[in-house]
Structure formats: structure tokens, C-alpha cells
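Exercise: predict the fold of this chain.
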Amino acid sequence: MSCFQVEKQVFERLPQYCLGVVVARGIDNRSANPAIERMLEEEVQSFFSRFQDCNIRELPNIKAYRQAFETLGMNPNKFMCSIEALAKRVQKGGHLPHINPVVDLGNAFSLRYQLPMGAHDISKLEGDMEIRFSTGEDHFLGMGETEAEQMPEGELVYVSGHTVKTRRWIWRQSDDGKITGDTDFVLFPIDGFGDVNQDQLLLARDELAQLLVREFDCQVQTGFLNREQNIIYF
């Protein structure tokens, strides 16, 4: 049995931090899934039509993540959180490519709820998954790179063992964290804040779980992490 946990020190910096969690086992991520492809296209067009002329930074959810980046000492203009980067890409072009069902699903839900939704291949973890502040023993291999870099101390990261899966919290994913056609056991974390978007986060979590069962006939487990309950086992 493995676990996903948030180091308690994280809540000292971000007291309202919380996560919705979905774990799915038995996904077929190799076969095309027309329903998910349509869902992504519909969410892209919906977001594009509703927010084409707005300032993405001022959307309430995205503003909250930008403020959290500043609290953590990270410049949100230089290191854009994943949902802001995705939203700006859609706002600019009104299009996203289809990658595979799991990635498409994450992008669709991120746009629908304006929440950062990650996807991690559990079979690639070195034991457990944590959200904690990095140490000098941690390392990160960037997407498309061939040599890992040593991490500075004190950066908020998703990490398994000493392998950093995402740098600067929800900014940049590692190369070994890619979701591929072989992925069949997935951890979906949805990052949020209890005083900003917890209700949306829980709706997204539950809708995602239902859709996974319907589309993949897979085993699904859900959870919720905050400062009172900071760990889930799967």
C-alpha cells in the first residue's frame, strides 16, 4: 500500500491549502476515447467564448494561485501555475491538441472548473507521493531533458522518494511524470483552497470519479486532504 500526503509544514505557509484526490486503477489509456475527445473540444470552445477578452489573472481561482505563489516566494509572472498557462493558451488560440484520454480529461476538467488538475502515473512512483519542501538530495529531470538537476532547498514540490515530479508546486512537470499510453494506474490531485474554491474542487473530484468509472470501468478511490487530514492511502 502506498500513500499521498502533504507535509504539515506546508500548511504553516498555506493554511487554507486543500486537495481533492482521485485514484484510478485499470484505465485503458491507449485506445481512443471519442467521448473524452468531445468533452475536451467542448470545454476549450466554451472557455474560449466566455473568456476571450478577459484578464485571465483576475479570474478568482487563478488570482488565488498567483497569490499563493507570491506567499511561497515564487514570481507568478515568471513561473506561471499550470491552470493559468492552460487558460492563456486556450484564450489565445481556442485549441488544444488531443494527447491521450487521461491528459485530455485533466485538461477538460481544468478548464471547466478553472482548477489545476495533475495526473501522475502511480507505477512510476518510488514508493509514496508527497507535497513538501525540497531538500538538497532531491533531483528533477525536466520534460524532454536528458540530465537531472539537483534541487535547491525549500521549494514546494510534488516528490516521490527524492525524484521531484513537479517543480515550484504546480508549475512544471518532470519528464518521468509523463502520462503515456501504458499508464493504467493514475493519481489525480486537484489543488485548491478552503476559503476560495473548495466546493468547486469537491464537485470536480466527484464528477471526475464518476466519469472514470463510466468511461473506463475502472476502480476508483476518492479523498480530501487538508491540515486536519493530510494523508490518503491507496
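Check your answer against the key: The CA atoms of residues 30 and 182 lie 7 Å apart.
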